Amino acid sequence: xxxxxxxxxxxxxxxxxxxxxxxxxxxxxxxxxxxxxxxxxxxxxxxxxxxxxxxxxxxxxxxxxxxxxxxxxxxxxxxxxxxxxxxxxxxxxxxxxxxxxxxxxxxxxxxxxxxxxxxxxxxxxxxxxxxxxxxxxxxxxxxxxxxxxxxxxxxxxxxxxxxxxxxxxxxxxxxxxxxxxxxxxxxxxxxxxxxxxxxxxxxxxxxxxxxxxxxxxxxxxxxxxxxxxxxxxxxxxxxxxxxxxxxxxxxxxxxxxxxxxxxxxxxxxxxxxxxxxxxxxxxxxxxxxxxxxxxxxxxxxxxxxxxxxxxxxxxxxxxxxxxxxxxxxxxxxxxxxxxxxxxxxxxxxxxxxxxxxxxxxxxxxxxxxxxxxxxxxxxxxxxxxxxxxxxxxxxxxxxxxxxxxxxxxxxxxxxxxxxxxxxxxxxxxxxxxxxxxxxxxxxxxxxxxxxxxxxxxxxxxxxxxxxxxxxxx
Length: 473
Ligand code: FAD
Description:
By secondary structure, the chain is α/β, with parallel strands linked by helices. The protein is built from 21 helices and 5 strands. It folds into 3 domains: 1-127, Rossmann fold (3-Layer(aba) Sandwich); 204-287, Serine Threonine Protein Phosphatase 5, Tetratricopeptide repeat; 298-470, Orthogonal Bundle (DNA Cyclobutane Dipyrimidine Photolyase, subunit A, domain 3). Helices cover 49% and strands 6% of the residues. The protein has a 5-stranded parallel β-sheet with strand order 3-2-1-4-5, with helices on both faces. The termini are far apart. It binds flavin-adenine dinucleotide. Flavin-adenine dinucleotide (FAD) binds next to helix 10, helix 12, helix 15 and helix 17.
């Protein structure tokens, strides 16, 4: 019997449901083949997100090589690539960790049908989340639209166990048929050549190290430190979760094992509820499959958002004249990651101060974020735009200057990303345009030349945003 395990966004060799199950089903001289599918559309758009993803894939490929369980690459449109796999390898069974949302869900459904028609048995699993989209239900069987009751139910449910992978068994059953897939191998090599970014942590080993570091200390006061972008107070797990370099079960069980629950645990509780947000948004996107393009709340579907490329460009580049917003966008552009507090602030700014369409922001994040996750990103954007199922109310609009004073009081984060403001005094760091000419000269920062004037007046735009929503509410 020949089993194939399809790697997708689960780029690791530990605690991997599809791999563990395939090995569990393996007997005597059964064989196993590991593979990844490269779609030709990747050559058309290669964004920072892809750059990071392929670096993670490389780290999996290298690791699998060490374990004598090489990864094969199939290449081409999905059906064409799978036809080639079947012709070359006569696979009897396919194993993968399924997607419940978006493009992945459609692809999984069509490939399951395609293989089913060719007598290949398909086994797919919920692996990416602690609880899949239909596991956390109301008592009447419906789904939750609001997070807090969802969280209450989520906490009551038993969490899935670690899916142990037997390394020796993997090495002894794995096939090496890479010669038959040279075209796929070339496509992989070409993509790896394109990768150039330098990132803070790539792949399984880095993920586990970073998690240990976070659980040693930072998790205990996560609730107090997580909102301050100048502090390294969050876990940075999102990039590893998105690529699957770490399993969500490993994170959950390591917390249970490693955390000293005698210490203050409000940080731990807050952290666990963040993991539940990830499940929540996956569930929401599952039940609102059009949420990538359509407002979840029907009455807000006709909002007349602005459409101005110049304004959008200034937001993207971090040239709005609001220091915290600009510093955040430059952090994103340079590192592929942005702090959560700032994601909320820049999303609110784009939609409520610039009145721009949230879909534009969602799209830009999808290109730039190394942790881009459609469900969480769409959820976050529709939350900020007040169009989601459990959003920030449209009349409670973030004031970008107050956010800056509150969450970066000394301007440390701002100065890290906006060198032009380096010598601006603390009392002006949140509003450099308030400096007198004399003060600007002294700070070596002429507003309008070295750093932009504010692109809008917050008070005016706030009123216009509220009007825009009121008209529809
Ligand atoms: P931590 O604070 O350490 O949180 C731990 C984990 O919990 C995260 O890794 C993540 O998996 C999960 N988590 C935390 N907050 C949220 C949240 N609000 N929603 C869903 N999951 C959460 N997260 C993504 O993973 N991908 C995205 O594309 C994404 N886009 C966002 C867009 C907007 C507009 C907003 C407001 C939030 C978005 N988030 C997204 C959620 C959150 O900002 C990131 O998960 C977080 O900043 C990642 O850093 P961390 O791993 O250090 O987080």
